[in-house]
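=== RUN LOG ===
request id: a7f3
mode: sequence -> structure
chains: 1
length: 119
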Amino acid sequence: MQSLLDQVGGSRIVNRTVSEFYQAIGRHLSGFESCDHKKQQSRQARFLNHALSAQPEPIHSARASFLAQGLDAPLFGALLEFIEARLIELGFTCQLSRHLVETAGDLYLSCEQDLSIAC
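=== RESULT ===
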């Protein structure tokens, strides 16, 4: 069975879609904000590529927790909304788009809970 990442065309599609999101919001940012958002763009793309890949547990969860550190939760939520709509525009089914967003969101929430316990 193909991973979700394979079903949407691999990391190329994920990276491009994350980049489109940051281009769209980048028009409204100051220079200072843009610097942080470039870091977020890279972190979020890595997290999504990992979240949608097919890796066995516990490696999958451990790596996700590491990648989730430093992600801006509201910005990640906005990115997931953008990705869901963008994948549908690109011709993917609503079900696949929703499943992808739910998978990434659920993994992020489980990582966020682990991080809050550690603080």
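=== NOTES ===
The two ends are 38 Å apart (CA to CA).
Residues 94-118 form the longest helix (25 residues).
=== END ===
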